[in-house]
Amino acid sequence: MQVTRVTRAAVDFSRIYSSLGLGKETIAALQSFRKRNEDAKRVLSQLQEQKTDVDIAHYRSILKNKAVVDEAERTLKEFKAVTYDVKAVEKAIDAFEAKAVEAAVSTEKKIDAELKDLQATLANIEQARPFDQLTTDEVAQARPQMVKSIGEMLKKGKWTVPGYKEKFGDLNLM
After folding, report:
1. What residues contact residue 63 under an 8 Å CB cut-off, 6+ apart?
2. Residue 26 CA, distance from chain mean position
3. Is the dihedral of CA 60, 62, 67, 72 positive or negative?
4. Residue 119 — very low, low, confident or very high, per pLDDT cuts 50/70/90?
5. Which has more pLDDT, 15 or 101?
6. Residue 108 and residue 22: Cα distance in Å, rounded?
7. Who's near 59: CB < 8 A, 6+ residues apart?
8. Which of residues 100 and 159 earns the better pLDDT score?
9. Distance CA 75, CA 133 (A)
10. Distance of alpha carbon 72 from alpha carbon 78, whole angstroms
11. Whether pLDDT at 77 is above 80
């Protein structure tokens, strides 16, 4: 199987980390992938720089034992490179890519939902009237359970709110 090189645009990982709002697990997976990729590139460049030809004539002129040189030459001629089936590696890469895409889609959905909630909250804040302009009738209409709880407290003769003194102190002058 012949391996072909594919030229791809450089990926700006710092932009990906900061702008997409990825989860910790996704960022860790990307950083791990990036490190393995850089290590593989480094090893490949080191191997490509190595000299691969063998000068048998040079060894014949230096060594006295010609049988050793003949045996080395015969071994080199008989050598056949081992081919590896890269389909298993491709499957692993495809599985990793599928998992990464799935995580990215999930993150995108979460971010979109959060953005919608934040926009609704922002719109609500912008449309809300200041607190000092609210009336008790409007507060009662917005929170009917508050009217019920106050009514129950008045029926039972409770004129203080539980926990108020602990939180704000006692303002009685007497």
Report:
1. 69
2. 2
3. negative
4. very high
5. 101
6. 9
7. 69, 72
8. 100
9. 96
10. 10
11. yes
Does this model's pTM top 0.70? My answer is no
Q: Which residue has the tokens 């009514």?
A: 151
Tokens of 9: 């645009």
Both tokens of 40, joined, read 């593989």
Q: DSSP characters for 25-85?
A: HHHHHHHHHHHHHHHHHHHHHHHHHS-----HHHHHHH-S-HHHHHHHHHHHHH--PPP--
At 167 the three-state DSSP class reads helix
Residue identified by tokens 């590139």 is 41
- Residues with Cβ < 8 Å from 3, sequence gap 6 or more? 86
Q: 169: left (phi > 0), else alpha (psi -120 to 50), else beta? A: left
Residue 3 has pLDDT above 50, yes or no: no
